[in-house]
């Protein structure tokens, strides 16, 4: 299970380093901070952060709000505005980009942690608006973004990259997630609804099982192999699986 990766964009080095230290203490993975719009884009093009903390007042022609628009258009990750300036003009500009969260300086460790959790939750909620209303209570336990799943673990979200998942198993009102490293996690959801929110390479092979086709090792007559696991086919599922594999 990977950590949530965060990019800090702040042109005051001492403040940036302090924020990074707090984030590491909270258990997040922290990238080298950026001090400008241009430097942030250079990092975004190489790294794949899960969330960005953006100081609004950046040195240079383009500020944090300009960067937020760019992130929204090209990188599809949540971001949080950091600012000591709450004047109406700045707030109005910031509102138009619809940040998942907004944090006023000075802030403490708890403020930062809460803002990150809210930003992840709000971003996921906005990206899954088509999910039925009855699932709303589950969103605080699991969040699905572009290439990863975030599971509520103790007091924070832990990251599971989709590619690390071998298969999913239905257990009544829960889904068991089995990873390549053989770790397992349980979330509250039906298998059918959960698969609808995942990439297309997750495929149902049985009423109780769905597999990551990218991790498929072999297909037998009555089962298939995923790591050390042998999973059964449901009636009629094998033919559909072979069609799916042949069209990938």
Automatic annotation (TrEMBL):
Keywords: Phosphoprotein. Residues 164-247 form the HTH LytTR-type domain. Residues 5-120 form the Response regulatory domain. The modification 4-aspartylphosphate is found at residue 55. GO terms for biological process: phosphorelay signal transduction system. SUPFAM superfamilies: CheY-like. GO terms for molecular function: DNA binding. Coiled coil: none annotated. This is Response regulator.
